Description:
Elements: H1 2-12, H2 18-48, E1 60-68, E2 73-76, E3 81-82, E4 85-86, E5 93-98, E6 114-117, E7 120-123, E8 132-139, E9 144-154, E10 164-169, E11 174-177, H3 182-185, E12 193-197, E13 200-201, E14 209-211, E15 217-220, E16 229-239, E17 242-255, E18 264-267, E19 272-275, E20 281-290, E21 298-303, E22 306-307, H4 308-311, E23 317-319, E24 323-327, E25 330-339, E26 351-357, E27 360-370, H5 377-380, H6 382-405
Parallel strand pairs: 1-9, 10-17, 19-27
Antiparallel strand pairs: 2-7, 3-4, 5-8, 6-7, 8-9, 11-15, 12-13, 12-16, 14-15, 16-17, 18-20, 20-25, 21-22, 21-26, 23-25, 24-25, 26-27
Amino acid sequence: xxxxxxxxxFQDTFPRSSSSHFxxxxxxxxxxxxxxxxVCASAFKLQQGKSTENCPDHTMFFQYYHELHGEPxxxxxxxxxxKHVDFxxxxxxxxxxxxxxxxxxxxxxxxxxxxxxxxxLWFLPARQEDSGVYICTRRNSxxxxxxxxHLTVVQKAAARDIAYLQVLFTFTSGKLVCPNLWEFxxxxxxxxxxxYKDALLLEDDSEKFVFLKESSSLxxxxxxxxxxGYYTCKMAFxxxxxxxxxxxxxxxxxxxxxxxxxPIIVYPTQKTTSAALGxxxxxxxxxxxxxxxxxxxxxxxLANDTTIDVVYKQNRVMEGExxxxxxxxxxFIEVPLIFKSVExxxxxxxxxxxxxxxxxxxxxxxxxxxxxxxxxxYIATIPVALACVILVGICIHKxxxxxxxxxxxxxxx
Length: 413
């Protein structure tokens, strides 16, 4: 009864005529359609919203892999250690995603070619279309760390483009190391390698080379200047009845004993790095210091050709701790550039990694660009709501015209 009275009072505010009653019905339908469009627009907003699966507090760390098409590849989720966080403790829960997909990469039961197992992501084998950015997330009850791993898969004809640089001094003994075989040699009894120089198989009966069983190294009895060039190591990798081939190409650079090597910046290799406003980010600068002691090599970051601590006095952007690393008998230095929170001014700042010693220097510039994001929901929904209003207006106009054609007139209110 109350509901009927309320409806009656509301309708009494309009003149009682058939045409005005018709107008009220159409306006009522218009408001209902507008509300429906608003709900529709809200649903659109939710669909466009950024996934909440990301770490609420995360640090980005970049690592790069260059691999060959058709060969097995294992990406490892690293445990970088910098002054503000020890990532190595975050091993309780590790998940993997490809950057352009929200689908978690699961175990081998789900996909026999690409699958995750602990801190490793396996490709058996990798294909060119697998190239992209993979995100591994380490989290525990108090912190979350995301690691961006850039994978580039190339055809075997381009193997020299992704060769590993190694340096030997002339007229001394030395060795080349076939790199990144650990995941494929663990718990195996047969890890015999074949070595090639410029596509020619090296014979193990030569006095120049020493081949040791179960070793991933090629030993030189005496290195000559003519030994420089490209070397390839190959290893068979049997896995569950299928035998894969693993290939590594090494660019050997020979130096005279009295000469010393200038530092070489290994990465960042990209000219720009994408970041979202307000996000945390780490860009490491990794420098090859050669087989000599690396204490004489200095590595630092510059912003607009000025030291970081001068430009960013509040330490919002700062250098992390210097790390000295030995890989395959070679010395590397790594100094990270740490963004506590990316701000717009960073997109207009020229960052450079500078590596120098007494023999020379190298500078590698890089820029931070804003990550592409969708429009805010209140802007993105305007076209949807506007389209709804136009459609409803057209409908009302047609209905009025039909009534007018039948001889009805619209009373003036």
